[in-house]
Structures are given as structure tokens and as C-alpha cells.
Write a structure and sequence with these properties.
The protein contains 16 helices and five strands. By secondary structure, the chain is of the alpha+beta class. Strand 2 and strand 3 form a beta hairpin. Bound molecules: fe (ii) ion (2 copies). One fe (ii) ion (FE2) binds next to helix 9 and helix 11.
Length: 425
């Protein structure tokens, strides 16, 4: 069957009508969609609240609430199942000519299911799942004995390896002490804020506080699995990583004790999507490494931890802090701490990029694991931003939801590009 023919469009619509998973995911969707194959054709998707009313050729000049345009080659890659649709949107291979990226972000998993229904056209058999990754061979220490030591066998440490460069950097830049920050002016600045300004900052701080505790508690399985694999330089770097996360927990605790005041119910600021990410996705991706040391499991864990939690959400959170604190010129102690913390985090994200690239270089099929994980977590990351904004009307400090969703999308795209375009450093 020819792609982008009438028959093809009708089959796509029929597939959607049978797809209860898609229907469930799209039950809040109420906008029309136009898909354009650049210089070729355009297709109107009449989708409303989980129902596919029609997929038909668009009329000349027809408009819709959402217009997505891409070259035929891009659509073909997607319909062959070789390119993830949400990844293509994030990378800009599909151009969003009209419609809100915010709304699309909320419906990312639904959009994926929508396109998967088109991918199924012409596929006779369900695609065979990849074999479940078996526990890969591990280094000697899991057997309870060492055969040799690197540092006494002539090879020694590789100081040029990227993790060692990060390790040396961390010894210079990562030893700041949260106790030494001067927070003497911060408390009076805090008290001069309005109730809703304090509320939104407390919310942000409560998200960071739990986030730092989560990454501190959850990192160990990654260290262990790399140590078992004999990755001495990577483990050495991760010792500084964990030390820094511990200090970040301490830093936010100090803010609560000395600036904001004690609050026993900060978890009330943790919205459903935040909880999914920090209470479930992050710990489960990392604790999986205790049972499964496969490269697939490591890529999933590092993507969740370094690319999404640190590289996207935390970065977006710093942006919010800076927008607020620097625009007002207030709370210099907190601002300084966040600057130092962000510098630590940039090393953490750099390590994640290095690790994921190394694993993909060793096994190129892992690129799909990385992309799938990014696409799966994107809706949650976006929703945790929109849920934050939904709690305020009007939003204090003039913060705009659209700006932060766009910022997070840009961070996502940046992380994707760093993994997809580069060599390991
Ligand atoms: Fe941190
Ligand atoms: Fe971190």
C-alpha cells in the first residue's frame, strides 16, 4: 500500500479506532491536526477526545490547530519505525508550524501512539521484541576476588580519560562548603517578599531539596556497577559526584533552617508528575542496576538521572531561581550557593553524556534505548513544570509558563544533540 494515499489514511484511521490505549491517552485532546509532507501533500487528522473521526487529504490552504511539517524522508523514517516521532519533534526534524509546544508536550505519549498506529500499516507481524538483556559479564570483583590491580600492573591511572579530567576538576571546584556561605542578608530579603512570592520559592526549594536527597540516595548502584566492570577512573570521579550531591542536600537544608523557616510538610509541593519522576522513575531506573548490570540498564539509568533529572529539570529550576533572585538582586547567599551547585551539576551532566556515549560507541543499538527513554520521560518533565505553574494565578515574579516549557524543551534537544552528534570525549 502506498504511503500517503487515501487507502493508507483510511487504514491509519481504522487502526486508531481499534487502539484503546491511544484513545485513553487522547481523551483530553480536542484540536485538529494537519500533517504536511513538504512539497508533496497534506493530511487532515480530525481527532476529538480519543476518537478518530477522519484522516483525509487536506484541502488547498486548509488550516488546523496544529500543523506539523517535515520532509518526506523524515516521515518515511518515522513510518519505518527508524526515527522516534517525539525525538524528531525535539530535534526540529519535524517543524511545528502552528500550535502550542506546551500542549504537545503534555500529549507526547499520545502523539507517539498516534504515529505508531501508522507505523503498523503494512506490518504483517508484530515486531519481535529485542531479547531481554542478560546480565553482562562483570569484572573480577563480583567473584569475590581480584586477579590483578591496575595500579600495580604497570598500566596505572589514565589521567587523560575524561572521567579523570572531571575528577581533577571536582577536587578544585567541588570542595565549597555550604556552611561557609554568607546568608546573613537572605533572611530579611525573604521576609520582605509577598506570601505568594514566598510560596512559589518554597515550592521550588522543596522540589530541589527532595531532588537532591533522591539523587544522593539513588546514585550508589551506578557506582557499584561501574566498579564491578573495573572502570576505576569512572568510579573515582563518582566519589566526588556523590560527595557533591550530599553537600547539595545540606545546602538546601540550610536554606530551610536559616532563611525560609522550618516546614514539616514540604511534600505538599510535590505534584503528581514530580512524584512519578522522583519517587518512582529515578529510584527504579537506578535500583534496577542492582539486579541488571546490562549496558541497556545503565543507559536507561544515566538518561533518567543525568539527562532528564539533572540536565533538564534541574537546569530549568536554576533558570527560575536566577530569573527571580537576580532580577530583584535579592538573597545573595542563596544565589551564590546555587551558582556553585550548578557548576557541580554541569560536571555531573558531562559525566552522563560521556557514559552514554561510551556505551553507544560500544553498542550502537543503545541509541534507541537512549532515545526511547528521553521520549518516555519528556511528558513527565514538561508536566512537572506545567503543574508548578497551575498552582498560581497570577504567577508571582512575572514568570511565564511558556518560557520555562520552551527552556526545558531546548535543554532536552541540547542533550539529544550532544549524545547523537558526538564522540566520547
Ligand atoms: Fe545536586
Ligand atoms: Fe547532580
Amino acid at each position: 500500500m502506498d504511503r500517503f494515499s487515501q487507502e493508507w489514511a483510511q487504514t491509519w484511521a481504522a487502526n486508531l479506532r481499534e487502539d484503546t490505549q491511544w484513545s485513553e491517552s487522547a481523551k483530553e485532546w480536542k484540536w485538529s491536526v494537519l500533517i504536511r509532507v513538504r512539497n508533496e501533500s497534506a493530511w487532515y487528522l480530525d481527532l476529538f477526545r480519543g476518537e478518530c473521526r477522519a484522516i483525509r487529504p487536506a484541502y488547498e490552504g486548509e488550516q488546523a490547530d496544529f500543523i506539523l511539517e517535515a520532509d518526506r524522508a523524515v516521515w518515511d523514517r518515522i513510518l519505518d519505525g527508524d526515527q522516534r516521532p517525539m525525538v524528531a519533534i525535539m530535534q526540529g526534524a519535524i517543524t511545528l508550524k502552528k500550535g502550542s509546544i506546551l500542549t504537545l508536550g503534555r500529549f507526547a505519549s499520545s502523539a507517539t501512539l498516534l504515529l505508531e498506529a501508522a507505523i503498523r500499516i503494512g506490518q504483517k507481524l508484530p515486531s519481535t521484541p529485542e531479547p531481554v538483556a542478560s546480565r553482562r559479564e562483570v569484572g573480577t570483583s563480583e567473584t569475590g576476588r581480584h586477579d590483578h590491580f591496575r595500579t600495580t600492573s604497570g598500566r596505572g591511572l589514565d589521567h587523560d580519560a575524561f572521567p579523570m579530567q572531571l575528577y581533577h576538576k571536582a577536587k578544585r571546584l567541588g570542595i565549597w562548603d555550604p556552611q561557609q556561605l554568607d546568608m546573613s542578608a537572605d533572611r530579611s530579603h525573604w521576609e520582605a517578599l509577598t506570601d505568594s512570592e514566598r510560596d512559589v520559592l518554597t515550592r521550588l526549594l522543596a522540589m530541589f531539596q527532595a531532588g537532591e536527597e533522591a539523587v544522593t540516595l539513588d546514585l550508589l548502584p551506578l557506582m557499584r556497577v561501574l566498579a564491578l566492570d573495573g572502570r576505576l577512573e569512572e568510579e573515582m570521579y563518582l566519589t566526588t559526584f556523590l560527595f557533591e550531591e550530599a553537600k547539595h542536600v545540606e545546602f538546601f537544608q540550610r536554606i530551610f533552617h536559616e532563611v525560609v523557616g522550618q516546614d514539616e510538610d514540604l511534600a505538599r509541593f510535590h505534584t503528581p508528575s514530580y512524584r512519578r519522576l522522583f519517587y518512582e522513575e529515578l529510584p527504579s531506573a537506578l535500583s534496577r542496576l542492582d539486579r541488571d548490570g546490562s549496558p541497556e540498564a545503565i543507559v536507561e539509568a544515566s538518561t533518567t538521572y543525568n539527562m532528564v533529572v539533572e540536565g533538564t529539570l534541574a537546569e530549568t529550576g536554576y533558570q527560575a531561581f536566577y530569573t527571580v533572585l537576580e532580577q530583584r538582586g535579592i538573597m545573595p547567599g542563596v544565589t551564590e550557593g546555587i551558582r556553585l551547585l550548578q557548576r557541580d551539576e554541569s560536571r555531573h551532566v558531562a559525566f552522563g553524556i560521556y557514559l552514554i556515549r561510551r556505551l553507544i560507541q560500544e553498542k550502537p543499538a543503545l541509541m534507541g534505548v537512549f532515545q526511547d527513554r528521553m521520549a518516555a520521560l519528556m511528558p513527565l518533565a514538561m508536566a512537572s513544570i506545567t503543574e508548578l505553574f497551575a498552582a498560581y494565578d497570577p504567577m508571582p515574579f512575572g514568570l511565564k509558563e511558556e518560557d520555562f516549557v520552551q527552556y526545558a524543551m531546548d535543554q532536552f534537544a541540547k542533550r539529544m544533540r550532544r549524545i547523537e552528534n558526538g564522540q566520547i570525549q
